[in-house]
Amino acid sequence: MKVRVVGNSCTWFAKPNTNFIINDEIILDTPQSSTKFMLPYIDYEKIKYIFITHFHSDHFADLHLVFDWIKCRKNKEKVVVIGPKTLLKRLVILYRVLEHPKFNKKDVVKFFDIVELKGGEELALDGFKVKAVKVEHNVSISFGYIFKFDDCEKYVGFSGDSNMCDGLTEIIEKSDVIFMDTASVEKNKNHLSVNEALDLKKKYKKKKFYNVHQTDFITKNYSKKLNIPECGQLIEF
Ligand SMILES: [Zn+2]
Ligand SMILES: [Zn+2]
Which ligand lies nearest the alpha carbon of 212? Predict the structure, then answer.
């Protein structure tokens, strides 16, 4: 399994927002400007799936631009887009707000299969299984995902944005490798804090953690204690 960490930061900093390309076939989250930052790494002809964790702009806002890339590609296979319920409604609103007044749902279904989840579902897809796990992030709905590829023995979890909740615990306990939002210094309702992340690292010694969704402050002050990947880094298991 190959995970390209396209970005590992969050909205207010110069580095790219956190998103991933998995095995060259899956995009996980489409933050604002991610279409620019993915360009050195992505071949849209190969993309089969897009996963969205939640609808904050630093996870969702470029989805319409990713769609525009895919609509222009030679490969006419439909791309499966998986995310929390209300995904399609929000995507249509996004297009209309951005001056595509004639855009409608038919444009989407021609190129994409939209799969809206409520959380807790396990899907068997092409070469892998995935579970959507509901996490707490002070929003209407937010997921993390656990992936298990047929040709890789490891379970790999992505927390999305999450505080220390039951969903995050499930992701950690069921995964061997975890890409985990660690965006806060202080404990709060939106993100995991550095100390919570360090406690988890101590508690689950056999698991490999990557700390993402970083602020510049955390990267500068905690990079020795945390395991913060570089933007653009390719991680293989
Ligand atoms: Zn968020
Ligand atoms: Zn975020």
Answer: 2
Distance, CA of 180 to CA of 222 (rounded, Å): 15
Distance 9 CA to ligand 2 centre (A): 9
Ligand number, closest to the Cα atom of 183: 2
In 115-193, where does DSSP find H-type helix?
166-174
Please state which CATH number belongs to domain 2-236. 3.60.15.10
Closest ligand to residue 56's CA: 1
Separation of CA 183 and ligand 1 centre (Å): 10
Point out which residues pair with 82 in neighbouring strands. 51, 115
pLDDT tens track for 168-191: 999 999 999 999 999 999 999 999
- Axis crossing angle, helix 63-71 with helix 87-97, rounded to the nearest 10: 90
Q: Please state, in angstroms and rounded to a whole number, the distance separating the CA atoms of residues 203 and 53.
A: 26
Residue 96 has pLDDT above 90, yes or no: no
Extents of the domains making up the chain:
2-236
Confirm whether pTM is higher than 0.70.
yes
